[in-house]
UniProtKB/TrEMBL annotation, chains A, B:
Keyword NAD recorded: no
PANTHER family given in the database record: GUANYLATE KINASE, GUANYLATE KINASE-RELATED
Family classification: Belongs to the guanylate kinase family.
Gene: gmk
Species this protein is from: Chthoniobacter flavus Ellin428
NCBIfam families (alphabetical): guanyl_kin (TIGR03263)
Protein name, per record: Guanylate kinase
Lineage of producing organism: Bacteria, Pseudomonadati, Verrucomicrobiota, Spartobacteria, Chthoniobacterales
Domain Guanylate kinase-like: 14-196
Amino acid sequence: METPAPSRQFRRLGILFVVSAPSGAGKSTLLNALRQTPDFVYSVSYTTRQPRPGEVNGEDYHFVSMEEFEQRLAGDEFLEHAQVHGNYYGTLRSAVIEQLHDGVDVLIDIDVQGAQQIRSDGNPAISDAVADIFIMPPSLEELRRRLNKRGTETSEQIETRLHNAATEMEAWHAYRYTIISGSVEEDLQKFRAIMRAERYLSHRMVLTP
Amino acid sequence: METPAPSRQFRRLGILFVVSAPSGAGKSTLLNALRQTPDFVYSVSYTTRQPRPGEVNGEDYHFVSMEEFEQRLAGDEFLEHAQVHGNYYGTLRSAVIEQLHDGVDVLIDIDVQGAQQIRSDGNPAISDAVADIFIMPPSLEELRRRLNKRGTETSEQIETRLHNAATEMEAWHAYRYTIISGSVEEDLQKFRAIMRAERYLSHRMVLTP
């Protein structure tokens, strides 16, 4: 009984990772830490909001005018877009798709509204995204403390954010994964475990001849 | 606009992890390495096969007689059982369920036949097991090399195993996760990433009042 002995090669498409969280839940800090790791390419979003102190155009966001954003929107250039607190945010389609086809994992930072657009995208490489990771603040008190500490918003803006956050937090069970936010290091380890595990899902692997 | 500020506590049931692989794919080595980690409790299976040199009763397996195994089987004491190469293997139900209810993760080592029994179990704590991790040998040549090196079987037994392995390997895509076996350390890191990620699945979390 001689057994044939094929040599097997697997390859996979890149995975689009999306992380959602109420503002102040530690998402920006986590994303900054993730950007130091070599695991993926970070896709820089377009936005019409004003830069915060220290934010760099082309690194944190592409800061653009309302006119430019609406022109690109009309040209269907965005994979997803959202209007949050009166400002536009969006992810350019072309760069993301190219990287996924090259087997590169891509991370995007979008608000809760955008994830649904990703999941219902017509391109399977996009709609198979891991768009269901929710960073849950340990509590609203802690969220309030973090927002106060950041000091970039008025107390009225903070109350609006807390109100929105309370609503968003109620929807945690609609997300595939929930990370209860702890230290940056803990959140980073948890997120990277999810990223790695998703790469070993059989349905993402393709046998090459 | 005052926002209510609930403090949230999450708990979860333990998860039953099952790893399947063709013999010689590195599963035993991986499981031995996993047993050194504090992540879970390892459930020792019952078997009627003879101990291999160095195997310890109560640690590697509970080695029992055909009579004892069949008596327990008749009493429905096994969560799953299988007959492989003429010998019985089985996992005792009572200990596993108790640990899962205490929030402890349990790892069991069963052959490919057993995973389906786990998935169709009437107890949700059991059927929600991660019973779909397949350790894929890099190739049948490498598998043959490992089995020859182990030297515990005749060349006819090795050919039987390779024949079975080739069939099992064809079914890799039926498993949720596929780990392409590399070094023990690589396999261990991959497996632990899957274990951690599964713990962050929202549906496994329960809000306590």
